[in-house]
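Quick review question:
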């Protein structure tokens, strides 16, 4: 499957390209969950992990699918020579009627090209999100199937790491089971509020730090 218009977010990509180009940074690559993440929260999250400033560049855009992320790899990843690539893609593929395997195959193309281009690169894969909208649309099974493929790919590749974000989305009972979504979403029931992004950064910080610090050992 191929989208009819792989350049529907071209204007957003051009805006990213107009920013100062920083290399050898953490590069966040994915969809609007990343794009909406306030830069100050991202920088605070990495302040004790990376010495260079900015520590990270955020190349999340639009409602990007995995195929679009592969399409824009030559412009949004390769020229920036990332030290760390953090991948986050959620439900956009399913909204565009991709299967989990189709989404994964495009994801895999990005990973393998990046690992080939940059010999010291580490890739950190954040598991697909689990927003209220995703549940309302009935995409849980697609999300879970895609997640299994990502988790297995990371397990099979020594330079890839997987972080499970699924528990973050839910209130926890005393037994650790998911009960309901946390009240951290905007009205679209997809993207986090600023408080939600603050909480997300705290959830990820120690997990990211453990992976990234290992890079220099």
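Suggested answer, residue by residue:
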């Amino acid at each position: 499957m191929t989208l009819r218009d792989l350049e529907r977010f071209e204007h957003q990509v051009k805006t990213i390209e107009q920013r100062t180009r920083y290399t050898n940074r953490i590069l966040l690559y994915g969809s609007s969950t990343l794009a909406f993440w306030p830069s100050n929260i991202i920088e605070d999250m990495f302040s004790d992990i990376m010495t260079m400033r900015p520590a990270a560049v955020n190349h999340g855009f639009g409602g990007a699918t995995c195929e679009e992320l592969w399409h824009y790899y030559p412009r949004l990843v390769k020229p920036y020579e990332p030290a760390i690539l953090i991948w986050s893609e959620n439900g956009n593929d399913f909204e565009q009627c991709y299967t989990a395997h189709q989404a994964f195959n495009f994801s895999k193309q990005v990973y393998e090209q990046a690992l080939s281009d940059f010999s010291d690169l580490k890739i950190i894969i954040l598991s697909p999100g689990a927003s209220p909208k995703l549940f309302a649309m009935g995409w849980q099974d697609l999300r879970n199937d895609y997640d299994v493929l990502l988790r297995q790919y990371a397990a099979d590749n020594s330079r890839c790491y997987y972080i499970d974000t699924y528990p973050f989305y839910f209130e926890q009972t005393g037994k650790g089971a998911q009960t309901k979504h946390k009240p951290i979403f905007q009205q679209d029931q997809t993207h986090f509020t600023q408080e939600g992004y603050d909480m997300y950064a705290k959830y990820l910080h120690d997990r990211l730090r453990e992976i990234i610090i290992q890079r220099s050992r």
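Why it works: The radius of gyration is 16 Å. The chain is about 45% helix and 15% strand.
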